[in-house]
Design goal:
By secondary structure, the protein is mainly alpha-helical. The chain contains nine helices and no strands.
Length: 186
């Protein structure tokens, strides 16, 4: 799967690249240790993490649906059952913004996908996303981007106890950085 992503993802995916997929994979391991999922659940979560942005290899908008189609095509070759594939597709779907997780596994992948919001990598990661969205003409100016970031950080919330306890405060600090940048640009 990693080789597929490396070969198929466009170079202008500055944020949704192989590095992001690997980061989400690592975040799932980190969060899962605290949330105490089973080994079986962890396999499903990691599989979903590997596939969650694979749809970007086909199209930018609605990539989650494309990722689910790829999962349904690829996973039977690895002896995943119909039930497991449905679970993985549900996990992929919950990464769609706005996130709407309904169970622990969904809460874990939702938090793993957006964990950077509460880390010291926030500014660097947000810059990559800005460049990507700018390339696809989904945002045009830094001020517009900062307003989007501010609004998103205001409504976003982590879903797992682990992320609430460990990443809410840094996320609030990152929101303040965005607000300061907005104030300085006026």
């Amino acid at each position: 799967m990693l080789q597929f992503l490396e070969e198929k993802l466009a170079e202008n995916l500055y944020y949704h690249d192989l590095g992001h997929t690997l980061e989400v994979l690592n975040n799932i391991s980190e969060i899962s240790r605290y949330e105490k999922v089973t080994k079986y659940e962890l396999v499903l979560l990691k599989t979903a993490a590997l596939l969650h942005d694979s749809g970007f290899s086909l199209k930018y908008q609605d990539h989650e649906s494309e990722s689910q189609k790829l999962a349904r095509e690829i996973l039977p070759q690895f002896n995943y059952t119909h039930v497991e594939i449905n679970t993985i597709c549900n996990l992929i779907e919950v990464t769609r913004i706005p996130q709407k997780p309904t169970n622990l596994m969904e809460r874990i992948i939702a938090d793993a996908d957006l964990l950077y919001l509460g880390t010291d990598r926030f500014l660097d990661t947000a810059e990559k996303l800005f460049q990507e969205l700018k390339f696809y003409s989904l945002v045009s100016t830094r001020m517009q981007w900062n307003k989007i970031q501010k609004d998103f950080l205001n409504v976003h919330h982590f879903h797992t106890e682990y992320c609430i306890e460990n990443y809410n405060l840094p996320k609030a600090e990152n929101l303040q950085k965005v607000i300061e940048e907005l104030n300085n640009s006026n």
